[in-house]
Amino acid sequence: MFIFTFTIIVSRRTVMDIGKKLKELRIAKDLTQEELADRAELSKGFISQLERDLTSPSIATLVDLLQVLGTTINEFFSEDPEEQIVFHDEDYFEKIDTDLKNKTEWIIPNAQKNMMEPIRLTLEPGGSTYLDVPHEGEEFGYVLKGSIKIHVGKKVYGAKKGEAFYFTPHSEHYIEGSRTTGAVIIWVSTPPSF
């Protein structure tokens, strides 16, 4: 009796489209309805009805189907947290460095766990970033406002609004804002280093 009640609760909670999920798994495994039916010892018609949510499988049948599809009942019913795709001002984390006259905004929270770490850097007139030591990876930036000087080793490169920069950080490097206008840039480092 307890198992039957549990099954009903699970079915109600997952009316979410068991059929749709089964169909997605079947297509991901590159199986036709007929191939899935053969492997699970069911009829093609039953698989078709399942995928259109016209019938419900018993727990035993569902377990068999999931085994053929290379997953378990736990994985099938687990709800993956939805990945955040769009970030807003309230998601950003900022740090103001009054000595260097800059503001760093991490516009993708927890990006240090990703392969890229983008920031929005605001440099007051004459502001700069700290001197960074050589490291593995790549640096990319786009100037949104004002102009900057990019110091890489002993060389200095200028970039203004609408221009981009890219370099491999094999030398000491830092960015300096215009002494009159300052600058705002999007700066992306891979791997994360900000």
TrEMBL record:
| Superkingdom of source | Bacteria
Q: Which residues form the HTH cro/C1-type domain?
A: 22-76
What are the record keywords, sorted?
A: DNA-binding
Source taxonomy: Bacteria, Bacillati, Bacillota, Clostridia, Lachnospirales
The reply on keyword NAD is: no
Provide the protein name.
Answer: DNA-binding helix-turn-helix protein
Q: Which GO terms describe its cellular component?
A: cytosol
- Give the species this sequence originates from: [Clostridium] hylemonae DSM 15053
Molecular function as annotated in GO: DNA binding; DNA-binding transcription factor activity
A Pfam family: Cupin_2
User: Which InterPro entries does its entry note?
Assistant: Cro/C1-type_HTH (IPR001387), Cupin_2 (IPR013096), Lambda_DNA-bd_dom_sf (IPR010982), RmlC-like_jellyroll (IPR014710), RmlC_Cupin_sf (IPR011051), TransReg_Diox_bact_type (IPR050807)
Cross-referenced SUPFAM superfamilies, in alphabetical order?
lambda repressor-like DNA-binding domains, RmlC-like cupins
